[in-house]
Structures are given as structure tokens and as C-alpha cells.
Amino acid sequence: MRAQMPRTLHSCSFFLRGVDDTFYITEELLDLQSLKGTTTGKDIFEAVSDSIDQAGLQWDKLCGITTDGAPAMTGEHKGMASLVCAKVRESGGEAVKMHCIIHQEALCAKTVQLGDVINTVVKTVNIIRARGLYHREFQAFLSDVDAEYGDLLYQSEVYWLSRGSVLQWFYSLRSNIGKFLKEKGRPLHELSDPLWLADLAFLVYLTGHLNTLNKRLQGKEQLVPQLYAHMKAFRAKLRLSESQLRNFNVAHFPTLTEIKSAFPNAKLSAKVGEYVSVITSLITEVTQRFQDFSVIEKEITLFVAPFSVDAEEVEESLQLELIEMQCDESLKNQHQLLSLPDFYRSLEKAKFPLIRRHAKQMMSLFGSTYICEQTFSLLTLNKSRLRTRMTDSLLGDILHISTTKLTPDVPALLQTKAQHHCSH
User: Fold this and answer.
1) Domain that holds residue 311
2) What is the pTM of this model?
3) Are residues 237 and 356 in the same domain?
4) Alpha carbons 166 and 158: distance in angstroms, whole number
5) Cα–Cα distance between 120 and 357 in angstroms, integer?
6) Which among 291, 204, 276 has a CA at the least distance from the CA of 240?
7) CA distance 325 to 330
8) Rounded distance, CA 256 to CA 120, Å?
9) Cα 165 to Cα 171: distance, rounded to the nearest angstrom
10) In the list 76, 249, 339, 406, which could disulfide-bond 244, CB 3.0-4.6 Å?
11) How far apart are CA 251 and CA 296, in angstroms?
12) What is the DSSP letter of 423?
């Protein structure tokens, strides 16, 4: 069981993920509670406690909590997550704290800076799009030359993927932008500077990979091992890029390769040290921010690859069952053929109770607050200034219906409400 609690301005949404004995995952909105006064960690914890107690759930069954990383959520002593973990320990259980992997990735992406490239791109986009006439003329110009994109994008700090998309579109349209601005008497000299273009190409490559990673981390019912695998692969790619760039090997940098080919006499190798430094900083940031996933790496490995784990390195209570499993060739074949839920579902309950329990715990962990972010979008659609009479209770009911995977048996519900009417 897992609680996940990102916070809106005046309310908290609590989601639970449960795994039953058939390894079927259920994600449901537990409660939506409004916070009328302060929003400290203690206030949010009390709201969580009320919701869990009202639902009749057992605290010792909670195995982890994921938050959006707000200070009230993550404080070491008074944060809501810490208070929840302490409550679970008091009840005889053990829960882990995790910071949403999507939020972490977005924070890592903000550290990617290189000179004034982004400022120049944003300024140029604003020059073209902020003036209606310029904008219409630019769109017509792109249509006439059959450009890859029909317009430029605005950057927004709120939308995590916007910076990468803005840079990609700007890079693809760079020659068209240069011609258009030159016709308007406002030439952008940076577009003829190979060193500036190399910086732009490098950022396009790096932000493109960050955007790809972000999209892979999104989605409902993703397991923590899947999310962590994406992050480890991204970090390994960064290390490969760092190593290759030191020798100015741009084999995996298609945009830099284009600039290198377009300006063969430019001394682009002088920028190598700067690019390596950016990648090194990003690797350090990624490593530091994902410590909570590293803490449970052994448990994740045991869940994903139980046949390649040394039995002496796992928890003592699991060692005998793990050895029994590793010595069974038929189970090894099943593990290769079946999905992880199907494999653990096939294990005998009486023979592997603790291994099955460990698998349920891994499957019940939330790795991100994606489902809560989606619910926040539903909340803003339903609660507006045009619906001021909507109560908190009604809003909660609407969100329960909007987010549930359960299908109501409408005929049965109607049957319970059937009654005879006297004829007039």
C-alpha cells in the first residue's frame, strides 16, 4: 500500500496503490482534503491520518510514501513524510520515503545552462511572436519555404518540456529565422557565429534527451524498477557522452555534427571543456538527487532479477526461499518468459510467502506523483469561479469518479432504488 500526496494551494490529494494476492494493481484516490488554515507538515499529516483512519486501513501495511518534494512534505523531522514513516514504525511496519522522480528530473534539467544561449533564443522568439504583424508574416514565410515547423514556440518555466521543444524548433528553423530577421532589418548575428551555434546544438542535444527521459517517466501504474531503469540508462548515456566529448568524438551528437560539417574551419574543439563541464555537473546532480532510489537498489534488483542475486546479500528472512527459487530450473525459465507480475503470481503461496510479499511491496511503491498531477488538472477544470457553490465534498466525489478504474454496476444500483408508485 502506498500513499502519494502532492499539494495544491488549499488542498491535498491522497492516492493509494494496492496489490492484491493475484498481483493486480489498484490505484485509487483515497481522499481530497481542504486545508483551511496553515499547511505545515503536521497539518498535512493530520489530514492523512484522518483519511486513513476513516477508511479503516492498517498503518503497518503502508510500505512507502512519495511526495512532490515541498518543504512541508520532506522535512527531516517535522515533514509529513517523516511523520507518516514514524507512525508506520509505531504500528510495527516499515515505510520508505521517496521524492517524485519526475520532479527530480525536472530539477536536474534546470541546472543545464550554457552562456546566454537560452536568453538569446527566448528574446528572439519574443521579437517574432509578440508582434502580431511579425508573427503572421513569419508564419507565411515558413509556409512559403515549406519549413519543417510552421511556427515558433514560447518557453514556459511551468511546463517542464517547453525549453527543450523551444530549442529544438529554433535550431531547426535557424536559417529561416536568420533570413526573416535580416529582411526586417534586425539581423541576429549569433546565427552566423559557429561557436554560438555549437552551444545551441549542444543544448538541443542535451535537452532533447532530458525531454525523452521525462516522457518515459510519465504514465500510470509504472513500477519503481521501470522508472529507476530509465534513470540509470540516462546516467550511463551521460557518462558515455562525457567520455567521448573529451576526445571531441561527436558520434552521438547529431546536431553538433551538423555544425562541425557546416563550419569545418571553426575551432569548435575549444568548446569541449565547457560541454564536458556541463555534462559532469548534470551527472553529479542526478546522482545526488536520486539517493532515495539508490537506498532501495538491492530490493529493486531482487525483485527484477532474483536469479542473479547473491543470496548472502539479501535480507536474512528471504535467503532460504531465494535459494529454493534459484535452484528450480523451471522457475528460471518462467522468469524469462513471463512478465514480473505474472511470474510472481505463478509462485506457490505456501512455498514462497516472503518472496511474494517482497514483490507486492515493490509493486505497491509509487515512483512519481504523475497521477496526482493529472488529478490537479481535473480539479482546476471542475473548480472555477463560475462554479463557486461547489462544496469540497462534491468536488471530492467528482474527482473520485473521474480517477477511478472501477466500473459501476448501474443496473444493480438502480434495482436497489426501485420502488412502486401509486397510480393517481
Assistant:
1) 302-366
2) 0.80
3) no
4) 14
5) 54
6) 276
7) 9
8) 19
9) 10
10) 249
11) 35
12) -
